[in-house]
Write a structure and sequence with these properties.
- The protein is mainly α.
- The chain contains eleven helices and no strands.
- The longest helix is centred in the C-terminal third of the chain and has 37 residues.
- It is globular, with a radius of gyration of 23 Å.
- The N and C termini lie far apart (48 Å).
Length: 269
């Protein structure tokens, strides 16, 4: 019985990995196929022409620059807003806490189309025209909720007695925040920043309604799909996957080094 369960578990694991990775492998393979269609069947030989075409496409680089600018703007605004919201919710109790929590989580449940249109209409009433700045504000309105949830989860493991002890010893509230609370929240804040960054990069609905005439990567890909997709999109997607995996590896290596260093300090003490 135990052996059968292990076999079934292995089969499920393999099937699950194939389900996740096989489409990515097909997509990546099409970037090297010498065919005008984004496919690996029929295989017409290896080529790097699609990467060269991508490199020579000025529009995609403008879209990439705009995407990075919007994503960084979203991170800069979402992280402090989400962190402050989590600290506020954690500091109150009772019915008001549940009400405030529901209000701050609600934007996650709202469709992106609604957020995009609402952002555009609201700021137009204040005579603020569309553009990438509105894309940042529209995305922050719901991405900050993701940051809040991560920080709030981290706060559940925080010992409030440390704050009280520091205040009793003469520390100011600002010192308690900088030297006790924020260091405890740094892992969640970092994870929230990463999620905010990638959520912004892949956002389409909000950006489509608020961008004005500017391009982002998602809008660029959408326009290519409408006008006739080529394997340059596969090349772009493959590069994005590679960069994402590289960033994940760097983060994991740095995290393990930090944990090893902390264990060594603990043993020395």
């Amino acid at each position: 019985m135990h052996k059968t369960r292990d076999v079934l578990g292995n089969i499920y694991m393999i099937a699950f990995l194939l389900y996740l990775l096989l489409p990515l492998m097909v997509m990546g393979g099409a970037a090297f196929n010498d065919s005008k269609l984004p496919t690996i069947v029929p295989w017409k030989g290896w080529t790097d022409r699609w990467f060269i075409d991508l490199w020579n496409d000025n529009r995609v680089w403008i879209a990439f620059r705009n995407t990075l600018a919007v994503a960084l703007g979203v991170v800069v605004l979402s992280v402090p807003i989400g962190t402050a919201g989590a600290i506020l919710i954690n500091s109150i109790s009772g019915r008001w806490r549940a009400t405030l929590y529901g209000l701050m989580v609600a934007p996650i449940l709202i469709p992106g189309v609604v957020i995009g249109i609402s952002t555009l209409l609201f700021w137009n009433q204040l005579s603020v025209g569309s553009g990438l700045h509105l894309s940042v504000l529209g995305q922050v309105s719901y991405i900050a909720s993701f940051v809040m949830l991560l920080v709030l989860a981290r706060l559940q493991s925080f010992d409030a007695g440390l704050e009280e002890a520091a205040l009793d010893l003469g520390a100011s509230h600002g010192q308690v925040m900088r030297r006790i609370l924020l260091p405890h929240l740094y892992p969640a804040i970092g994870a929230g920043a990463a999620i905010a960054f990638f959520q912004s990069i892949e956002n389409f609905n909000v950006t489509l309604f608020t961008r004005g005439g500017a391009d982002t990567l998602t809008v660029y890909v959408f326009s290519k799909v409408r006008s006739g997709i080529t394997p340059t999109i596969n090349a772009l997607a493959l590069l994005l996957i590679f960069v994402t995996l590289l960033a994940a590896v760097i983060y994991e290596v740095s995290r393990r080094r930090r944990e090893r260093r902390e264990r060594m300090l603990t043993v020395e003490e």
